[in-house]
Known about the structure:
elongated, Heat Shock Protein 90, alpha+beta, 9 helices, disordered N terminus, transmembrane
Amino acid sequence: xxxxxxxxxxxxxxxxxxxxxxxxxxxxxxxxxxxxxxxxxxxxxxxxxxxxxxxxxxxxxxxxxxxxxxxxxxxxxxxxxxxxxxxxxxxxxxxxxxxxxxxxxxxxxxxxxxxxxxxxxxxxxxxxxxxxxxxxxxxxxxxxxxxxxxxxxxxxxxxxxxxxxxxxxxxxxxxxxxxxxxxxxxxxxxxxxxxxxxxxxxxxxxxxxxxxxxxxxxxxxxxxxxxxxxxxxxxxxxxxxxxxxxxxxxxxxxxxxxxxxxxxxxxxxxxxxxxxxxxxxxxxxxxxxxxxxxxxxxxxxxxxxxxxxxxxxxxxxxxxxxxxxxxxxxxxxxxxxxxxxxxxxxxxxxxxx
Length: 353
C-alpha cells in the first residue's frame, strides 16, 4: 500500500519558463511598438505601469492555465495506465497524484518486482537443491537395503555368514535413515520455533569432558588427541545442556572425521568474559578450502561428500549446530586455512549462580 504526504506548492519550472517566454515576447513587441510610435501617450509612466501590471497578470494566468492543462492530460494518461496496474497502486484519496510522482512510484514498483523475482528464483533454486539433496541422501541407504534384501531373498539367507553380515548392513542403513529423518525433523522444528530450550546452569568444562569420553574410542581409532584448555577449572553457563552437548558432539566428531593426518589434535578452549563464556573448538586437520567455507552450515553440504557418506553422516551436523546456537541467541563463526586446520568460535551466557 502506498501513501502520499501532504502536498505543498511546488513551482513547475516548465510552466514558469513557458509563461516567462510568452510575456517576454509580448513585452518585446510592446517595446518595439513604443519605439516606432509618435503618440506620446504610449510613452507615459502610467502606460508603462499598466503594461507591467498587465504582463505580470498574463504571466500568472498563463502559468496556471498551463498547469491546469498539464495536470489534466497527466491525470488522463494516469487513468489509462491505472487500468493495467494493481488496485492498490493508486488509492481513492490520492486524486492529485502528479505524473512525476506516478513515474517515481512506477519505478519503485518495478524495482520491488525485480527484487521479488530474484528472491523467487533464489528460493526456487534452493528448493530444487534441497529436494535433490534429500532424495539423494535417502536414496543411498534405501538402495543398499533393497540390494541386501534382494540377495537374501534369492537364497543368501541360507548362508549364515552372508545372512548375518547383510542383516547387520541393513540395520546400519536403517539407522542412517532414522538419523537423517531425526536431524531433518529437528531443524524444521527449530525453524518453526517448536522446540523449547530447557535452560539450566551447568559446568561447561564438565560437559566437554563428557563429550570427550563419548568420542574417545573414535578419536583413538583415528589417532587423535582430545584436549580441554580453560582459564578456570569450573565455568558455569546458562543454557540447554542436552542441546549444547549435541553442539560439541557434532563439532568434535566432524573434526575427527576430517583430521586425515598423523599427530592430529582437537583443542576445546573455554574462556570467561564479562557476561559470556567464550568457546573455541580448534583442530589441526586438513582445513577447509576458501570456496567451501561460506557454505558449511548449509543443509547437506559436505566438504568431502564421499568421506562423510562413508562414515554415515547425514550432512546436517553443522546446520544443527547453527540452529541450536541461534536458539540461544548466539552466533557461530569459523576460521580455516586449507591443510592447516579449522577453528569454530561461539559464546554462551554465563550463569549468575
